[in-house]
Each structure stands twice: as C-alpha cells, then as structure tokens.
Automatic annotation (TrEMBL):
Keywords: Membrane, Transmembrane, Transmembrane helix
UniProt superkingdom: Bacteria
Organism: Prauserella endophytica
Regions that span the bilayer: 12-32, 157-176, 188-211
The protein, known as: Uncharacterized protein
Length: 311
C-alpha cells in the first residue's frame, strides 16, 4: 500500500476502512432514529397492550397488536433479544403517535429509550406467534429476560472483538514489513505511524470488548441480587444516542457510603436509580472498584465504578 506511489492516499484509506463502519452506523442511527423522532416528541403517549395471541416475532422486528384499537392495528418495532423476552413477560409498549405514514415511537415498560416504530394494518410477512413467558422473582442466573440479554450481548461483544483483532492483524501484516525494510522511511513515516496508531486502537477496542464479554458472562451466572440504596447527584448527561453518564452515591451493606460513576451505561439504569433510589448489583459485591448492575426482569447488565468513601 505504501510502495506504489500512492502513499498520500494510504492513511485516509486506512481511516475509512477501520472507522468507516462506525461512522456509517452513527449516520444511519441519526437518519432512522433521531431525526424522525423530533417531529413526534410533542405528541401524547400511552401504553398499548397486546391481547392473547397478539404478539409476533419476525427475523428483525416484533409486532404487537393493539388490544383496544377499533380496527386491526399492529405496532412493528425492532427490539433486541432481551427486550423481546421482556415483552413476552409484559406484553405492552409505551407508544407515541402514530404520525404521518404510521411513524411512531415506542418503548418497553420502564425504558427511557424511545425507538422508531411503525403502525400497520397487519403484522410483517412470516411473523410467527410467540407464547407469553411466565416470570416471577428469581436469581440473575434464572432470570429469563436477563439471560436473553446476556446471551445477545456476549454474542455481539465476541463479534466486535474478533473484528477488531482481524483489523489489527491486517494492519500489522500489511505495514509492519514495510516499516522494517523501507529505505525511504521519511516519505512513508506518517502513513506507517497512522497504521500503527490504528493497530493500537484496534487492539484496545478488541481488549475492551473481550473484557466486557467476560464480565457480562460472570454477572449472568450470579446466584443473587444485591440491592443498594443509591442517589444520583447532578444531571444525567447524554453520552451518545443510547448511553448516558452520571455520578452519584451508594450505601454499601457495611454502612459506608461511596461515590458511584455511571459511564456510557444505558439511560434505563440511571433513570431507574434516580426514580427508585436503588442500585441492583448482579451477585455479591467483589473487592475492587468495578461492579455489574442491572434491574430484575429487565434487559440490563452495565458496568459501574465504585469510588472513594464520601465521609
């Protein structure tokens, strides 16, 4: 790539190849989710419930039939595996709209994240009926909603980890040999520096996803929940379109109070702590500053940081 006279294009090509999919994902999220949502945010919302047999799955979406609609009306929305399992235990959605062309916003019970949905006169083609899922108080390892979320998240983190490792291997294989043998290092130094920087970024990203894979798996095997009194200090700051940042305080079982940091976690977790005054830890507290938090019967497993004592 750097020996054919086109070294000036090498670094931009590396950036596009490495970070292009992430930029494309953010662009699609803006066009599909954020931009259409603005026109519906002033509309009133309501809970809609599915009658018996009114919940269907297709490959990429969930369809819920509105029980009190005078005509056959179906809310079609994309949901992850954990949210799908939650819908089977509690078959209702918070719905805003529909507006023009059946566009609506929908959220699972208790969720602070609105998703773009469509309201149609029929469910998607080949959507299959699914039975309700009985659920009651249970340990994290037996929580059907949490387990569906854990499996999905571990699968996603594994894919991202392997993908970043492949990017790192490609960058190392295609540029490190050139760095070692080139006779005109000054000419290609900035290209090779960019390649090595991206390789380092790929390695860090792969390691972060692998760490998340291990932490979420360990949390999913927990035999108990540990509820801790907690408060949020200050405002909840958006950190991307599906995550939030907040700081607060948590009281441990021994009576001590510590700072807690929520960095790049689901807004659902922070909103629940702010409203309920409680932080649910997956399993028993371990030594160290990190813990996995969630909410029983909700598709959440987020890493939080326990800091210094407050008093």
């Amino acid at each position: 790539m750097v020996d054919d006279g086109h070294s000036g294009l090498a670094a931009p090509m590396l950036l596009i190849a490495t970070l292009g999919p992430l930029w494309l994902y953010n662009l699609i999220a803006w066009v599909v989710n954020l931009a259409p949502a603005k026109a519906l945010l002033d509309e009133p919302g309501r809970y809609v419930t599915a009658p018996e047999g009114g919940l269907r799955y297709s490959t990429l979406s969930v369809a819920l039939r509105i029980a009190d609609a005078p005509d056959e009306r179906w809310v079609v929305v994309w949901l992850g595996a954990g949210a799908r399992a939650q819908l089977r235990t509690d078959p209702r959605l918070w719905l805003v709209g529909p507006g023009r062309r059946g566009l609506a916003l929908a959220a699972s019970p208790g969720s602070a994240v609105l998703r773009v949905a469509r309201v149609h006169n029929r469910p998607p083609h080949r959507a299959r009926p699914v039975a309700a899922l009985a659920h009651g108080p249970s340990a994290p390892c037996d929580d059907a909603v949490l387990q569906a979320h854990v499996r999905s998240r571990r699968r996603t983190t594994a894919i991202f980890s392997v993908s970043w490792l492949l990017v790192r291997a490609w960058l190392t294989q295609s540029h490190l040999p050139v760095l070692l043998r080139t006779a005109d290092l000054d000419r290609h130094a900035w290209v090779l520096a960019a390649a090595l920087a991206l390789a380092g970024l790929a390695g860090i990203s792969a390691g972060a996803h692998l760490t998340d894979f291990v932490r979420v798996g360990r949390a999913g095997r927990a035999l108990t929940w540990t509820p801790l009194p907690a408060t949020i200090d200050g405002d909840i700051a958006p950190n991307g379109h599906l995550s939030a940042y907040a700081e607060g305080r948590v009281r441990l079982p021994d009576g001590t109070e510590r700072l807690v940091t929520f960095a790049s976690v689901s807004p659902d977790l922070v909103a629940d702590v702010a409203s309920a005054g409680r932080l649910w830890i997956l399993g028993a507290l371990r030594p160290g500053g990190r813990a996995m938090a969630g909410i029983p019967a909700r598709p959440l497993a987020e890493s939080v940081t326990l800091g210094r004592r407050t008093g």
